[in-house]
Amino acid sequence: MVPIIELTEKNCQDCYKCIRNCLTKAIRFSDGHAEILQDECIDCGECVVACPRHGNFVENDLTLVQKAARMGRRLVASIDPSFIAEFDVSCVEDLNAALEALGFAASEEMAVGAEIVSREYERIMMNAEVDVLISSVCPSINLLIRKYYPDMLKYLAPVASPLQVHGRRLRRMYPDAFIVYIGPCYARKREAHETGCCDAVMMFSDLKQWMHEQGVHCVNSHTQTDRGIRARRYPRQDGIVKSMARVLGWNRVSIDGVGDCIAALEEMRQRGANKVFLEMTACEGSCVNGPAIRSNRYENRIHGTVAVNSYAGEYDFGVEEPGSIRVTFEPDPVARTHPDEEEVERVLEKLNKATAHTALNCGCCGYPTCREMAQALCEGKAEIDMCLPYLHEKAERHSREVVNSTLDAADRVIDKQMRVVQDIASILGETTAETKVMLVKLKEAIQ
After folding, report:
1. Which region among 127-136, 359-368, 372-381, 435-444 has the lowest average model confidence (pLDDT)?
2. Nearest C-alpha neighbor of 48 from the set 226, 230, 292, 245
3. 56: helix, coil or strand?
4. Are residues 418 and 400 in the same domain?
């Protein structure tokens, strides 16, 4: 599996912030450093956002795109609709002008593909093909279901993502083009690798870097060239739902954030549902709060959502897709060992977390409970020193040992000196009372 997100070992400083924010716990700690387990990772980018030392790096296609431009390739951009939340522009034409200055021959909003996907979701519900439909727009959620909830694949919409649909459209329009997706989502990189829907994936930050290097600036025209397209709502929370027409008899629920999506999938396992469309996105606040937009959590949710709302409307592009956009998602379950319960209990004993009273479940190690920490230790994914209460107790125990050994040594020295003084006094015929009193006081003071 091609690594999309990796860690820079030299910058890792034992803070465990990445494991605390990784809800799939796809990280192993060894020798005090973190390592992403690629087979378990869903490319959500939470570890990149959380790392205070910028110890993560993401596969970068900027050099690849620049090389294609130097070779004279025809560059065509698929622009994620969240661009309006990241750049100081009023419409896609403003950004297109900057892209043209960098050498792009053409560009188009990926919202075109989103509109086609929405119409397909509506058809599935109207034809009653399933009782529950989970959106397949977010590649991280698709990975989450494939890896951790393969039994829920029956609910995942068998529909290609907006990027795949739009990439196919651009290849028809520009057969010889070098297609570049530009957006806020690291997971799109894996999607591009696996499906070939585009030739390169650039983050908004990559585009800004290139613009800075070339001295290119976006110009805000403060005008909008159309009446507003509803598929442009896709980047905001509940944006997929708001881009679709209501289907009689169906409820629509929007869930954002990996944690809430996991909770919803667990609920589905236990209770099921009927006639429900579930919009699921991995980022809290959806794409306007994507990992390549925000440098801090929740930084762009209000501004980004307002910008999306202002740019969107109630109209459609009116684009039709000539072929089928149905796909099949294959399960890719994470192969995890299940440690023996006795082994887990032994680790809990070693951590002094074997009882409800001692198992603090403080989460300092990054795992929600002491038992999950013990299981990670058994699987070789964690280190015992990640447990802060265990380290505290270990340090206290060591301090007591040092103090006790010091007191014992001092006690032996004082006793020896008293015997020496007594011997000298007996030889000289002098009293040792005063010396004994001083040594006894010294001994008591030390104790």
Report:
1. 435-444
2. 292
3. strand
4. yes
Global confidence as pTM:
0.84
Helix 204-214 crosses helix 62-70 at what angle (to 10 degrees)? Answer: 50
> Quick one: which of 145, 146, 157, 137 has its CA closest to 265?
145
- 6 and 106: one domain? no
- Is 264 within a domain? yes
- Burial classification of residue 261, based on how many CB atoms lie within 10 Å of its CB (0-12 exposed, 13-18 middle, 19 or more buried): buried
Residues 266 and 123 in one domain: yes
* Domain membership flag for residue 127: yes
Buried b / exposed e over 39-62, threshold 16 CB at 10 Å, is: ebbbbbbbbbbbbeeebbebebbb
Residue-wise pLDDT for 372-431, tens only, equals 888 888 988 888 888 888 877 777 777 777 777 766 666 676 677 667 666 666 665 555
Q: Max Cα separation, the chain?
A: 118
Mean pLDDT across 58-81: 95
Residue 397, amino acid: R
**Is 222 within 8 Å of 272 (Cβ atoms)?**
no
Give the residue from 36, 59, 82 where a domain finishes.
59
Distance CA 190, CA 43 (A): 8
Instruction: Please count the residues of the chain.
Output: 447
- pLDDT for the residue 418: 67
155-166: per-residue pLDDT in tens? 999 999 999 999
What is the number of structural domains in the chain? Answer: 4
Q: Which domain holds residue 379?
A: 337-386
Map tokens 């058994």 to a residue.
Answer: 378
Mean pLDDT of 24-42: 89
| For residues 229-248, average pLDDT | 95
Give me the amino acid identity at 372: E
Q: SS3 breakdown of the chain: % helix, strand, coil, rounded to 5?
A: 45, 15, 40
CA distance 117 to 231: 10
Ramachandran angles phi, psi of 319, nearest 5°: -90, 140
Residues 377 and 404 in one domain: no
- Token pair for residue 300? 């762009």
User: Residue 241 corresponds to which tokens in the numbers above?
Assistant: 């739902």
